[in-house]
Protein: SFRICE_011111
Amino acid sequence: MTNNMLFNIPLLHGVAVSTAALADTWNLFDHGLVFQVLERGLKAIPLSVDLWIHFLNHVKTTRTEDHAYIRSQYERAIEACGLEFRSDRLWESYIKWEAENGSALNVTNIYDRLLATPTLGYTSHFDKFEHVMSEPVAGVVSRAELVRLRADVRATAGAAPQLDLPPGEDEPLDHVASEEEAQAIKERIIAARRKVHKTTGEQVAARWTFEEGIKRPYFHVKPLERCQLKNWKSYLEWEKQHGSLKRALVLHERCLIACALYEEFWMRLIKFLEERVETNPELVSVEREVLERACTVHHLDKPDLHLHWAHFEEVHGNAAKAAEILDRIEKTCPNLVQIQYRRVNLERRRGDYEKCAQLYEGYIAAAKNKAVSSALAIKYARFLFHVRAQPAAARAALDAAVLRDPLNARLHAQRLDLALHCPDTPYQELDELVSSYEKQEGAEPEVCAMLAWKRRELAEELGDAQAARDATAHARALAKHLRKRARKDKHDPPPPPNACVEPNKKKENTAAAPNNAASPSGGSYYQAPAAAASYEQPYAAPYQPAWGYQQPPGPYQHHPHPWPQYPNYY
Structure:
């Protein structure tokens, strides 16, 4: 059971410890399995001081005499977890093990790194740096440092001590002549570390407010308080501005332990890595590991993270992996348009046009509503026209979409725009396309007015004199009707929300509605809807398509409409 929990909730380091302890205590498994369990836990939580200490204790128990291996594992732990603000116990365990093995020089080297690291117990570390006074000075520092410090001491004293050496023999460079000289060297060793300790204290003080605000540094399924989230955000921003790259990465990982269930903190780390990957190419592997961990462990159903991961893999030349990621998240979150667009465009960039067409047609057929189906149809037509150079197929895709959604003005506009970019399209067909929306039952009068001016523009440039005259009269009639309705709405305020309507009057209005919604060809124009907006402009601006087929221009060119030049004759 605990092994299954470790797989499903890897941030619970106690599960890893419990699993390893059961295996070790009951002798149910060999030591290799214990190592596997602990290694699995360390991979999930590399910043867990408790887990590292359990792991190192097991290493020391099973390989007591292999000092080189134990030291390498301590170094591995310090590299992974040493910059954690609460890592003091890990450092102290390393120092204690080296001291027990009689390596004073190694103890000093560890202290040199620890004293330069801001940690919670930084004040006690300098106080414990007392082994220098009790050990021979030649054994606590490197030979190069000893030679330098001895030279400084003798330069300060003003004269070298008199030594009784055999004739022709020089004094060794690391020789300490007297106890007083040794004491002076030790004092200089401590003084040099005191400067480092002071600088570290300033770094701790700068971070102390943020560290005090962290009330729950461990993982829990319960949500964090808002003040906790705000503190983490402020701390991350401060570390990015004032800390090193490595410290910022460690802080992000600390944050992801407590805030693992918050997608925004994963995206913060991903963005942080992306901003620095150009100057640090080694961060590519780090970003890949973070994305994989976020999408396969903590957020299996978050589309944004998966889309980001797929884009990352595609950019770095792994399109097959990107397709696999998109396919998996689509099964988890079906009918999500962003995923559908990304899958189609990925296949297009891979050159599999047949797969693109199959995806488009499948998505259009399975769309849950007309709006999604129409948007997909427009993109499909664009793909057929631009990528596959099949204008007839593109027109057929739009015609089918108009049959499904006849009141979608964008579909009608796209059909017209497609025809305008085909040089052999006759004017009669263009006139039918620009008038197709107005012929639909329930067409919006405002859209009809815009398309009427578009029709007039086409007639002026491509049609004969009679067509231009009829189109102009029709457009002006629509504009006049809308202006009249706008003035009426402006001067007649709407009734209050709770106003009562007489039953007979309400019945009359209901009966009159169908007659007022007759087509323009019958000589009667559109009745204003109940919640109509105010339209005070003359509706003279020509209709601009939502998008263009970036092809060489056909015989038709867009021109601004000179409406202000025409007087109002109606």
Observations:
- The radius of gyration is 39 Å.
